[in-house]
Amino acid sequence: MKTLLPAGQRSRTLLLSTAVMLSLSCTQQQNNDDQQQAAETDAARFVSIFDGKTLKGWEGDTDYWKVENGILTGEITADKPLEKNSFLIWKDGQPADFEFKASFRISESGNSGVNYRSERVEDVPFALKGYQADIDGKNNYTGQNYEERKRTTLAYRGEIATIRTQPNASDPASLRANVQKNAWQSREVTGSLGTSDELKGKIHTGDWNEIRIVAKGNKLQHYINGTLMSEVNDDDDANRSGKGLLGLQIHTGPPMKVEYKDIAIRQD
């Protein structure tokens, strides 16, 4: 037989249950408000570095770079072939620890990337060497970490890799000797983010994508559309870079077009 609580006790129990539910609801609302405020604060710390109208704040070869319909555009045409990789270089700093984000769209034949913590190449106009978040139109390499004109591939898409110094690092010839099949030999894959093909499915071929680079200390992370594509932990004291120039690349090859917009950086 079901036992009923006295009316007064039932009322107290109902009031207690209601108070608990209200408290939980208020706590959840406060958590949501805190998360929204944190996201808004985080977004406010980003500084736009492209005005959508001009190349102000950037330098590069204007035979290949222009602003078109509010979009930063790099283009190689049949009548203007490119002999050496060329960069549009941001002039207003050499970021160390930072977060960079932008939207990009690239033609199928295109080859581009975002260089960071880089340095100029002597005697080659608008050339950089350093870390690169790779981008290509066929999405064979988009998201990987490729070090332009230095150690080459540090992490393929889907890899978490630790980078170490080559043998006989004091010998200038040792750097090139430690590169085989376009990859640095003193690297260890320590984890997986998924297969290259699985991650490729997160990239919008021929359409707009968001790229995000997070560089903190010796940890370098490349994201496409919010998905982590590669991570490098650079323990190579002889060759790693802690700060440097930022630039957008157009790569030698057939006619191509790459577009960037919504370019912003947050520096720690």
Largest sheet: 10 strands, mixed
Helix content: 10-25%
Q: Could you tell me the mean pLDDT? A: 92
- Name the CATH superfamily assignment of the largest domain: Exo-inulinase, domain 1
The N- to C-terminal Cα distance equals: 68 Å
Structural class: alpha+beta
Q: How does this model look, in words?
A:
This protein has 268 residues and is α+β, with helices and mostly antiparallel strands. The chain folds into two domains: 1-44; 49-267, Sandwich (Jelly Rolls). It is 18% helix and 41% strand. It contains three helices and 19 strands. The chain has helices at residues 7-44, 174-177, 196-200; strands at residues 47-48, 58-59, 65-68, 71-76, 86-90, 98-106, 111-120, 128-136, 145-148, 152-155, 159-163, 179-180, 183-184, 187-192, 209-216, 219-224, 227-234, 245-250, 256-267. The strands form three sheets. Strands 1, 3, 4, 6, 11, 14, 15, 16, 17 and 19 form a ten-stranded mixed β-sheet that branches. It has a seven-stranded antiparallel β-sheet with strand order 2-5-18-7-8-9-10, with no helix packed on it. Strands 12-13 form a two-stranded antiparallel ribbon. The termini are far apart. The model has no long low-confidence stretch (mean pLDDT 92).
SSE layout:
Elements: H1 7-44, E1 47-48, E2 58-59, E3 65-68, E4 71-76, E5 86-90, E6 98-106, E7 111-120, E8 128-136, E9 145-148, E10 152-155, E11 159-163, H2 174-177, E12 179-180, E13 183-184, E14 187-192, H3 196-200, E15 209-216, E16 219-224, E17 227-234, E18 245-250, E19 256-267
Parallel strand pairs: 11-17
Antiparallel strand pairs: 1-19, 2-5, 3-4, 4-19, 5-18, 6-15, 6-19, 7-8, 7-18, 8-9, 9-10, 11-14, 12-13, 15-16, 16-17
